[in-house]
Amino acid sequence: MTHTAARILPRPDGATIAYHALEGKSPGVIFCGGFKSDMTGTKALALEAYCRDAGRAFVRFDYFGHGESSGAFEDGTIGRWADDTIAVIDEIAEGPQIIVGSSMGGWIMLLAALARAQRIVGLVGIAPAPDFTEDLMWQEFSDAIRATLERDGVYREPSQYSDEPYTITKRLIDEGRQHLLLNNPIALTCPVRILHGMNDPDVPWRHSLKLVDALQGEDVTVTFVKAGDHRLSEPGDILRLTDTVDGLCHELSTA
């Protein structure tokens, strides 16, 4: 792993997206991380190593307010992060792409694929969490937490993944409602592969079944990992992920 400095993609409003990109064969792979995750995580780096070895194009990046990109995390929204991803597709990636989305990144990848359907030829979701701001946050919050959000506009949620609490804003919840997907057919027909741990405390594995039901395409496969957690970052999980991406790449190149 070479520790090169991130490149910078300027956005029209003056914000900047930090990214790393490899040139290589098509289809390229784009990694979309989770809520408050960044592009230096285990899965992002493992996919980069796989793509480098395979000679395949790859992009990992940080959303607005994440990692090395500009902006404050609490100022971000689902729409903003989806727009960042669409900018990466438009301005950095070339040709057909597979998007790999982890947790929140699974929602972002769906929104980006809907916006750029001609470019996105496959999706791989890792515990994908479309609609999580509504179904897994707002609907699950106690009356007290909802009251805090209504009164203060912000709730600081303790996280098992960080010493710092997650800052949940009312704006995140409200804006997320403009991007909900699971209650209607999702007009995507590209191949979709989903990996989900059945010991996931954050995104219940049944959430992936709702996604399968909503997707209009028929080429959708789900792999449940009985002992798997939310992150699916153990060595066996990483091998399963790279094998899944590799298999999809080969299917697309021989189709």
Give the C-level CATH assignment.
Alpha Beta
Domain module tally: 1
Order of helices and strands: EEEHEHEHEHHEEHEHEH
The number of distinct helices, counting runs of at least 4 residues, comes to 8
Shape: globular
Query: Taking Cα atoms only, what radius of gyration do you get, to the nearest Å?
Result: 17 Å
The chain-level mean pLDDT equals 96
pLDDT < 50 runs, ≥5 residues: none
Query: What class would the helix/strand composition place it in?
Result: alpha/beta
Q: Can you tell me the CATH superfamily?
A: Alpha/Beta hydrolase fold, catalytic domain
Helical content stands at 25-40%
The main sheet comes to: 8 strands, mixed
Q: Say what the CATH topology is.
A: Rossmann fold
Instruction: Give the tally of β-strands.
Output: 10
Q: Which second-level CATH architecture applies?
A: 3-Layer(aba) Sandwich
- Placed side by side, the strands forming the largest sheet appear as 1-2-4-3-5-6-9-10
Strand content: 15-25%
From the N-terminal CA to the C-terminal CA, the straight-line distance is 32 Å
Structure description:
The protein is an alpha/beta fold and 255 residues long. The chain has one domain: Rossmann fold, CATH 3.40.50. 36% of the residues lie in helices and 23% in strands. The protein has eight helices and ten strands. An eight-stranded mixed β-sheet has the order 1-2-4-3-5-6-9-10, sandwiched between helices. The chain is globular.
